[in-house]
Here is the input.
Amino acid sequence: MQTSASSDSPTVLIVAPFGRDAETIAKLVEKELATPKRCATPDHAAAQLDASIGAIVLTEEALFGDDAAMLEAALHAQPAWSDVPVVVLRAAKSRLAPARPLPGHYPNLVEVERPVGAATLISTIASALRARQKQYVIRDQVQRLSQNQETLARSEAELRLIADALPVLIAFVDPSLRYVFVNKAYEAWLDAPTAEIVGRRLPDILDAPTWQQRKPYAERALAGEAVQFSVNWPTRSGERRACDIRYLPRRDSAGRVDGFHIFVADVTAKTLALEAVQRQAEELEQKVAERTAELQAQVVARASTESALHQARKMESVGQLTGGIAHDFNNMLTGIISALDLIRMRAESGRVDGVERWIDVASASAHRAAALTQRLLAFSRRQSLNSQRLLVNELVHSLDDLMRRTLGEKVRLSMDLGHDVPLVRADSNQLESAILNLTINARDAMPLGGQLEIRTRRQVVEEDEAGTGEDRLRAGCYAVLSVTDTGEGIPPDVIERIFEPFFTTKPIGQGTGLGMSMIYGFMQQSDGHVRIDSEVGCGTTVRLYLPESVADSAGEGAGEVPQAPPETATPTGAGQQLLVVEDDAQVRTLVTEVLTELGYAVTVVEDGDAALKVLQSRHVDALVTDVGLPGLNGRQLAEIARQTQPTLPVLFMTGYAEAARDQSEFLEAGMHMIGKPFSLSDFGDAVAQLFLP
Here is the structure.
């Protein structure tokens, strides 16, 4: 077998003092077998001899020098496992020149006559190296065996030390029930040294009654069953000793039971304590039963009181809400009714001067009522949102001029907008309204002027940072918009009520009390959150948390801030056939009138069933329907209509509809929505939008 020399190969020492023998042998060894190392003399080779030497190759003449004895001594001094092969190249024998006997005695000597071929020499050295390799294997096996024996001895000593230190009886008995091992605890329990116990049988250690009690357990253990039982162990003093005993069978390599381990624990203290606890528990149970009877009456009385208090608070909140709504709506209705009465009075008397003024008063009051309704829907999280993906930073930038005009000269506005704020999905109009509301509140909190900062950041909320109760955020990534002022701050008792509808700390006539409740409802409806941090005398920070929006499969692009369309004249129709479905008679009349005026051909019905009959009998160019209808709602009606006219344009009118809160989910392609109340011009624009290409 030929192998190439490497750094891991054994070294071959070469001692050939004359001619080019050393060089020739070294080249052959290095090429075919191992790493060669030339030594000038045998004593040099003796100095190099260690476990890494695989073989020694010498020429005959090297052994007849005075220093050969040092190599012989080094070879005889090897460890017991080591016997380095020595290959000697000798001159050829003949009758005229018999071989000289080699001086000294070498334990593992191989003689090769010269001249010798390269193949023969390599084969001889390779055999020597293989023999040396076997020596290495034996050495490693002996070392591992020695290490295992040492480890086993240490393990046994440690096991004995641990077993003797434990306050339990530990023993092992063989199939004849003879003790093979016991720990020191046996000496105290049996009043005998361990040496006298080992070798004796279990029945001989115990008295006859005790053995008869334990014999069935021992038989079960020898049958291979783990056994656990409790007994009272007799003591010399006659005191009670409660014990837990375990017999755990041991099996040999063939799976046969060759005995079992014994573990005995003194549980007297535990047993006595348990009995004492049981007695105390019985006494406590009796006292608890007595006390329970006393508390039941108190609980009933308390529950009744809490129910009455809860109902009172609920009625107070409802009263505050309805009172605020009634107050504001009465003011607005007064403006509308009074203005209409004045218009009627002047019309009856034939006077038309000044009528425009009262029309404006009635219109303004109506718009205020519409805004109040939207705020109530926002607070109740029932408003219809036109959610879209948008960039918060761009929206804030677009409000810069408006906020500065709103704040005035006394308040300095600064912006710190983060560079990695994620896209969000929200109604841009409602978000603008929320930011302006917070800006106005901050301005009012700084009557002498101050600093207002608008800040945006990306924030990842982990599960352990989400908070609890009503202040809880869902874990995830958020765009956080914070508005911070240096104003008067908000007391804690006010913060507790700040999101209640119609709750305000502003003077009468300066606030409706719906701004913060509207922001709260909008954020909840947008799957976001709002948090307030404030300190009296230092200022307030309001943070709006909007969840990150990921682009959907429809391929939505980057967020944009919608731009308001330029004001134009209301477009007119060209005789298109419209089907109008509205259950309110007044709205139905007004809608029909305006559509007719704009040049549309209008068919009007009051519910979904009547609309289906029209759709089955004729073709219509567009469907204009209220969402909340009796029977079929507007969305269901549109789905049925599109079964026969898949591209039928649809305009939904809604004052409030649970299913239409998120327009992006409610509307399909070719569907539009307009919220009530609406101006007739806005309504005309929305209808015209249906027919745009």
Observations:
- The mean pLDDT is 80.
